[in-house]
Amino acid sequence: MVLLDNSNFILRLEKIANAAKKDSSFTLTFKRYDGHDKPVPRAGRPPLPKPDTYMCLIRAQSKSQKISTVVRQEDVPAMMGMYSQFMKSKMDGLKRVKKVKSKAKATKG
Q: Is the pLDDT assigned to residue 36 strictly greater than 90?
């Protein structure tokens, strides 16, 4: 997994979205991140220190490509602005799903 800075993450995400537009999909996950890369220590060992501020870990995956970025608390408004622009520009191909009424509901109502 490649750890990128925020602006490069959005640029690579646009490339992944363009590649996935034809026949595949991609996923995004947001997770609270405390900065620890080590697992929780066993019983009897000192615990990992609590962070002063938490960060947000954003991951994107499409087929075999995986990218991620860590967004600090002070960078959240700028990153969410870039992310919303990405969503508005790239998510235009969504189709409305038609609801199918069941026969039981159709006869009652």
A: no
